[in-house]
Design a protein that fits this description.
Largest sheet: 4 strands, mixed
Number of helices: 2
CATH superfamily of the largest domain: 2,3-Dihydroxybiphenyl 1,2-Dioxygenase, domain 1
Strand content: 25-35%
Helix content: 10-25%
Shape: globular
Order of helices and strands: EHEEEEHEEE
Structural class: alpha/beta
Radius of gyration: 16 Å
Length: 142
């Protein structure tokens, strides 16, 4: 079966008990812009970064039987050294040192390292809802 031609990433969604708090974090830390979103019977905030990346923040269903998270920021796994390697969103930041310094100044624990091939610096941390994030110094064009 051939891949669908023209396929591209449309958006990433995060469920949150407080979408306004989470939106503020992404707007202040990374420069996301809030854009108009459709009206649902639950709260949503749509954010845009650059020309084509969207983040949809969706109010957590209070009747959900699924665990919150993937992790709670209050749990032991909140230490970014224990962030499972396959559970994060990565953002390239051209001002890597400044972003990492800003995260630390806001009291966010950061696990910094250099990628094994030496071509990029990485910093792993959690957003206010415990979602794993990475910022990298490597441009996506490489």
């Amino acid at each position: 079966m051939a891949a669908a031609k023209g396929t591209c990433l449309n958006h990433l969604s995060r469920e949150s008990p407080d979408v306004k708090r989470l939106a503020k974090f992404y707007i202040e830390m990374f420069g996301f812009e809030q854009v108009e979103s459709p009206k649902f019977d639950f709260e949503v905030i749509w954010l845009k970064l650059g020309s084509s990346f969207y983040l949809h923040l969706i109010e957590r269903d209070p009747n959900s039987k699924l665990p919150e998270g993937p992790w709670s920021t209050a749990s032991a796994v909140a230490d970014p050294r224990h962030l499972p390697r396959g559970h994060h969103l990565c953002l390239y930041v051209p001002n890597f040192d400044s972003v990492v310094r800003n995260l630390k100044e806001k009291g966010i624990e950061v696990n910094e390292r250099t990628r094994p091939d030496g071509k990029a610096r990485q910093a792993f941390f959690f957003d206010p809802d415990g979602n794993g994030l990475e910022v990298t110094s490597q441009s996506p064009e490489l």
